[in-house]
Design a protein that fits this description.
about 300 residues, Na+/H+ antiporter like fold, Mem_transp_PIN-like, mainly alpha, membrane, transport
Length: about 300
Amino acid sequence: MTSLLLLALVPIAILIALGTWLRQSGFLQESFWPQAEKLGYYVLLPALFFHSLATAELGDVPVRKMMLTLVLSILVVAALLIVLRPLFKLDGPAFTSLFQGGVRFNNYVGVSAAAGLFGAQGIALAALANAAIVPTVNVLCVLVLARYGSAGRLSLLAVAGQLVRNPLLVACVLGMAAQAMELRIPGGIEPVLKALGQASLPLGLLCVGAALNLSAAAGWIRPIGLSSVAKFLILPLITLGFCHLFGLQGEAAIAAILFQALPTASSSYILARHLGGDAPLMAGIIAAQTLIAAVALPVMVITLTPWL
């Protein structure tokens, strides 16, 4: 397991490092990166999730156990962060960034690592994990931003609008619906979706590297530390507990731990900027957690796997 995980993480690290170099060297124009992120978020990654869920062979996957484990562990950590909020001594917008850092996850790193560990089955497990986590964290983060963000409290209609327009959420819902109804993707469309999905991973990891800005992390040691403890320690441990509670074992359990120990998503910055969060702090958390994950992710997965 140790060697497999490290081998799966090596190409991820190289692509992230390459993205950092491409951004800092100016090899590509600065305007490229926002457009690449937009392409990945609205087109490539949704294509990957829809295709993976619609075509996944889930016969041997404990779907219910895995989804319950992932969703309930996130809800527990979210509730814990909200209850402890007064102790953090942060203003509302800063708390929303800490909250996102504690519960959101980087899809690109997770899917790439799962594929490297388990091949095609890893893609199916990753798609299932996304189907459980994406709706959960998006609902929670939008609600927290609506409550504590500087933009003021959003109406229920505005919150619903944010969720309905989320491309990852829509792709997961459509993919699960196609899977449930046993619909087959037309022959001329399926290869297109597959190709778009495959393109999402290297491009997404390059964008993760390009978004790294360590100078943005220097001034926020405390909130970065708190969000990282929640993300890399508390959430995986609680997930391990739910794995035992529901009897989740094998590759599905390892994938669950893997996805709960991922760094926060770069899309957190976009949400913070548009819904009144502390966007500079969010950028610092993203940069710091991406680097911390290089050590924390393999340590947590390797340490907790024998206990599954």
